[in-house]
């Protein structure tokens, strides 16, 4: 009797322990064991390619479509579209550069229409803190962070691994993140091979992006395309938003002997933000001189000076001599365009060196 009672007690004790052990198994443990190393590896990738929408490009709040390749250092090149404008995008030497067609700068960025005409179709610098800064949001290490946050928010890491599927000859786990997917290899070491339509949260808002993990051939194409683009960057224009033109030493004199009038002044350009490459300003002065019954005459002049330095501008009009007294009054407008002429050879050299280091890792 004693042995029988003891056996029954042992059986009951074991049965009582078995159920709680099974209840505390976390179905996401295996998922986290696969995804964690895969995201760590993604963060170390030298180049990622992005295709999709971003919430802002230039601080205007308008969604832009991008097809952009970005290195670990934030060096980037690609194309994009905003409304009806097709643009080219580059980020190098810590400068965000855009080449946009007619209408892009005035309609989308909000640049003064007269200034916009001077930079249409030209490589122009934007403030990277207002919209897209590839170095801080799309460099692989930074993207891996926001992708991890997106997977955590979607509770992707809390559920069991899905059934594997074939993707380009490899067995992968298609991990659902919202309406998109992150594809991670079944075989260790686990790696992210692609991301499709996953919404991640950037500083400016949500971005819906598909991501390509670049191979050596992809990187070589990226390099060649970027070096070709740099060859066309002989002059970088400033967007003009922060440019202030100050006038001084304004003089207007008329000569009664030949009925000529001369307007002269000094102009100086200042930029109020620190991100600008621009170091020169080309000034244009357009004047209109009204002489009553003598009529109206126009003249103009242009001159260039270093940023913060004075440029001298002057122009002369001449009326047809006539006997009498006249009130002669000038009006004028002085504008400036800030530019920078980079060392193209040095820029190209730095790209070749960066991509040489990248390609050596494959």
Q: Summary?
A:
With 362 residues, the protein is an alpha+beta fold.
What this model shows, in words?
Residues 1-23 form the signal peptide. This is Lipoprotein. It comes from Stackebrandtia endophytica. Keywords: Signal. This protein is of the alpha+beta class and 362 residues long. The protein folds into 2 domains: 17-234 and 343-362, outer membrane lipoprotein receptor (LolB), chain A; 243-340, Immunoglobulin-like (Sandwich), CATH 2.60.40. The chain has 8 helices and 18 strands. It has helices at 2-23, 28-43, 104-109, 113-119, 134-137, 140-153, 216-231, 344-359; strands at residues 47-54, 64-71, 76-82, 85-92, 95-99, 123-126, 165-167, 170-177, 180-185, 192-202, 205-213, 236-238, 243-255, 260-271, 280-290, 296-306, 310-318, 329-340. The strands form 2 sheets. A 15-stranded mixed sheet has the order 7-8-9-10-11-1-2-3-4-5-6-12-18-15-16, with helices on both faces. Strand 13 and strand 14 (260-271) form a beta hairpin. Helix 7 (216-231) packs antiparallel against helix 8. The longest helix is centred in the first third of the chain and has 22 residues, at 2-23.
Shape label? elongated
Strand pairing plus helix content: what structural class? alpha+beta
Rg of Cα set: 32 Å
- Stretches where pLDDT falls below 50 for ≥5 residues? 1-22
Describe the sheet with the most strands.
Answer: 15 strands, mixed
Number of domains: 2
Given this structure, which CATH class of the largest domain is correct?
Answer: Mainly Beta
Secondary-structure arrangement, i.e. CATH architecture of the largest domain: Clam
CATH topology of the largest domain: outer membrane lipoprotein receptor (LolB), chain A
End-to-end CA span: 74 Å
């Amino acid at each position: 009797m004693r042995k029988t009672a003891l056996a029954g007690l042992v059986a009951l004790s074991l049965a009582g322990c078995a159920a709680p052990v099974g209840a505390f198994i976390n179905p996401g443990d295996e998922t986290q064991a696969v995804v964690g190393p895969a995201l760590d590896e993604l963060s170390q990738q030298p180049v990622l390619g992005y295709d999709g929408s971003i919430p802002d490009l230039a601080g205007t709040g308008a969604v832009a479509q991008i097809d952009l390749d970005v290195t670990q250092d934030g060096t980037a090149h690609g194309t994009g579209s905003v409304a009806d404008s097709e643009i080219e995008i580059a980020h190098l030497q810590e400068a965000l550069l855009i080449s946009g067609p007619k209408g892009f700068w005035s309609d989308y960025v909000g640049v003064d229409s007269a200034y916009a005409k001077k930079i249409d179709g030209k490589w122009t610098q934007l403030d990277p803190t207002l919209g897209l800064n590839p170095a801080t949001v799309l460099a692989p290490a930074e993207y891996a962070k926001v992708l991890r946050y997106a997977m955590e928010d979607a509770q992707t890491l809390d559920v069991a691994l899905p059934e594997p599927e074939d993707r380009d000859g490899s067995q992968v786990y298609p991990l659902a993140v919202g309406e998109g997917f992150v594809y991670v290899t079944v075989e260790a070491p686990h790696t992210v091979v692609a991301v499709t339509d996953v919404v991640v949260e950037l500083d400016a808002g949500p971005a819906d992006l598909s991501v390509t993990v670049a191979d050596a051939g992809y990187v070589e194409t990226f390099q060649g395309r970027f070096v070709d683009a740099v060859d066309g960057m002989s002059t970088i224009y400033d967007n003009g938003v922060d440019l202030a033109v100050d006038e001084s030493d304004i003089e207007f004199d008329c000569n009664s002997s030949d009925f000529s009038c001369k307007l002269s002044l000094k102009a100086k350009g200042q930029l109020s933000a620190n991100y600008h490459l621009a170091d020169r300003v080309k000034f244009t002065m357009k004047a209109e001189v009204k002489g009553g019954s003598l009529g109206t005459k126009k003249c103009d002049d242009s001159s260039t000076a270093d940023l913060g330095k004075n440029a001298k501008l002057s122009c002369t009009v001449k009326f047809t001599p006539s006997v009498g007294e006249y009130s002669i009054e000038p009006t004028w407008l002085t504008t400036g365009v800030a530019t920078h002429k980079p060392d193209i050879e040095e820029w190209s050299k730095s790209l070749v060196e960066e991509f040489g280091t990248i390609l050596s890792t494959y």
